[in-house]
Design brief:
The protein is an alpha+beta fold. Helix content is about 20%, strand content about 35%. It contains two helices and 14 strands; from the N terminus they run ααββββββββββββββ. Strands 2, 3, 4, 6, 7, 9, 11, 12 and 14 form a nine-stranded mixed sheet that branches. Strands 1-5-8 form a three-stranded mixed sheet, with no helix packed on it. The radius of gyration is 30 Å and the shape is elongated. Residues about 1-40 have low confidence and may be disordered.
Amino acid sequence: MKRTRSLRTASSLLLTAVVITGTLTAGVTSAAATDAPASAPQAPAAPCTHNQLVANSAQRVGATVVRVTVINEGPKPCVLRGFPTVALAGQGSPDKNRPLTVTRQGKAGPVTLRVGGTASTLIGFKPVLGEADGYCASGAEPTVAPSMVVGVAGGALQLGPADGGDFALCGTTVTATAFR
């Protein structure tokens, strides 16, 4: 009986030490964590390909800017880098497109897209002035097209404006941010 009481007292003191200081608990947790197998490091995602990316439309963000959002449809995560290329699709046909010069805005960095993940770029145009038959301040003829072709991940996506209108711009240069 004396031995049982001594063990209980020692157990109580040990339990009290653990509760008060937390030292032994932390030690036990650390030991348990090191005994568990380490998780294997995940391999970095491969670059995105145009086959796994889709875009539905170009959403107007202002009178002269559209946002193009691409979606990773899988089957695996991927990394998207850089800036888009842009062309206007003459008569709505991607093979009759008019390539535009893209002035890059900001710095590009890698964007990891999980399956279903999105990345966006903002594309800015020089405005067409006036009403229906608009004009360019430079005197050049405005360019109007029902769709644009956005180059991304080694392929091209043809998009119309989300509002159903046309793309209209003066000149042959647009601005674009890196995909984010």
